[in-house]
Task: structure prediction
Amino acid sequence: WPPFHYIVRGIIRDGDHLLLCKQKGGDYTFLLGGHIDLGEAAKVALEREIKEEIGADVTARKFRGAIENVWDDQSEISLVFEVNHSLTKDVTPQPASPAEEHLEFLWVHIDQLFEHTLLPTPLVTWLQNENHDLWASTIG
Result:
C-alpha cells in the first residue's frame, strides 16, 4: 500500500484573500494544517498545526468537507475547516520555529488560486463557492 496521510487543513480568510502555504522553492500551494495524530480530534490537530507553523492561536470552526487525493505513490484524506483568527493580509506570517523554516506563507486573492496552483484542486472550487459538496476526490 502507498503511504497514507490523514490531514486537516484550515481556511484562513481576510476579506477576499486566503492565507496559503508552500514549500520554499515549491511550485504549488496548500492550506495551512497538517497531520492528525492517532486519537487526536481533527479540530484540535488543526489548531495545534497552525500554532506550530506560524505561532498563531486560532479556533477551528465550520467543517467544509473532505477531499481524497493521490499523487505519485502517496494518498491522503484532508478534512477542511473554516478558522477563526486575528490574522490580517497586511502582515504575512513567518515560520514559528526552525522546524517550519522549509515553509513560506502568502496571502492570495481568491480569484488567483489557480495561478498559485492550490492543491488538492477541488479546493479552488470550494473556496470560490460556499455551496459545494462535502466530499471531493482527485481519484479517477
